[in-house]
Amino acid sequence: MQPQIILLKEGTENSQGKPQLVSNINACQAVVDAIRTTLGPRGMDKLIVDNNGKSTISNDGATIMKLLDIVHPAAKTLVDIAKSQDAEVGDGTTSVVLLAGEILKQIKPFVEDGVHPRVIIKSLRKAIQLAVDKINILALKIKVEDVQEQRRLLEKCAATALSSKLIHQQKGFFSKMVVDAVLLLDELLPLNMIGIKKIAGGALEDSLLVAGVAFKKTFSYAGFEMQPKKYSNPKIALLNIELELKAERDNAEVRVESVEEYQKIVDAEWKILYDKLDLIHKSGAQVVLSKLPIGDVATQYFADRDMFCAGRVPDEDLKRTMKACGGAVMSTAQDLNDSVLGHCESFEEIQIGGERFNIFTGCPNAKTCTIVLRGGAEQFLEETERSLHDAIMIVRRTIKHDAVVAGGGAIEIELSRVLREHSRTIAGKEQQIIGAIAKALEIIPRQLCDNAGFDATNILNKLRQKHAQGHCWYGVDITKEDVSDNMEACVWEPAIIKINALTAAGEAACQILSVDETVRNPKSGGDGPPRMPMGRGRGRPM
To answer: Annotated active-site positions, please?
Structure first.
């Protein structure tokens, strides 16, 4: 009898082969079932409570996937594709997970029947490529020369993105706001130049867009009340300097022989501070913003000279102020001149709800803006922010890639038809596998119907009929519980969302199919690395 060879540390679990593959697919199914019902305008929300008791209510696929804290190694792939879809396009996070899960579900019977995973992967890649090519052929390019037409297109795409969110009732109001916000940015469309500030209280319609910078009043010392709260055409100094007296015990040890010597040190400290303040005052700046604290002596000094100051301004707000008003963030009070000072038409501190806000408007190169959100509960405001983030990302992508397709499951049904027709032209196992992927694409319109409480089979049959007759933009009409031409109904989505979702879902499915063994290593105890005993031994044989 041959001796048993044990390579892995005792307690290591390893499972392999077909049962492993089926188990991975089942794990992905469980994840998909958790977010299946959030898709579309009639999707439901999920309430997720973390270890600390913080609850989040959301129907954004990526947010839910992040919060679910999934431990199964194969199912984590779905979390990654949701995150990548969110980072790349911003919307379609639920769709991408749903597509990947459904592709695996339709392919599972082939795995159980013993078809080699490599055969399936090859067919899957071919099907995804065919689908992406078809989207590129079908997508409608929009003429960007006409500014009004482009604006209308962007608003339609933003409204489609918002129609499945919590704030769908106000999608007309918010889609205009989002488009205005994105069009205020420069051609690179940097996301961090749109600030979103949330203030509880008031109605959603009280939300406003500031074409400039707005941030919450920072921590302030005595003397702040005496400062003016409104300026027109002020010069703005942006600093990274601490304007307060340091306590002597900080940073150094000083040994003194007499009180006079101690007094000299104190006087020197005051002189250093006053020299800085004089330089700032002489520069002509009326609004002083600093990343570091501005103490009570400095606050009083500025108040006496009719200057406004704010210390501990968050880094992102300071950067956005610099972008909007010009100037530079200085780390010394020397050389403060007009070239490094910012300018704006009007600065005002106003009350919004229970908060005081500093608002800079009429900025010379306002390539930044701030959305101030109002609303009820904190969770509601957070979900509104997530919804607007999706809409902003969609508008940014549509400006860069101006091709759109019809939403509401229209493009998926068309791709399903194309793949089904293609599958009949080829022989072998590929025919059935591509047919199964064609069926998997129907999950999007089917789930839209299920979530709205419609008869999915009936509506899908109508859609198949319409697409077979050549009406390629027919999709689910949620309002009429029927099918309609979604391109005419202005339910538009950027083609890039669909391409990205299909590619990511295909890649995830291929990755999960290519894994045939999982080895779980227990945490190694002791000092050194785990030993690898050879020959006879205890533990599970490989």
So the answer is: 60, 93-94, 390
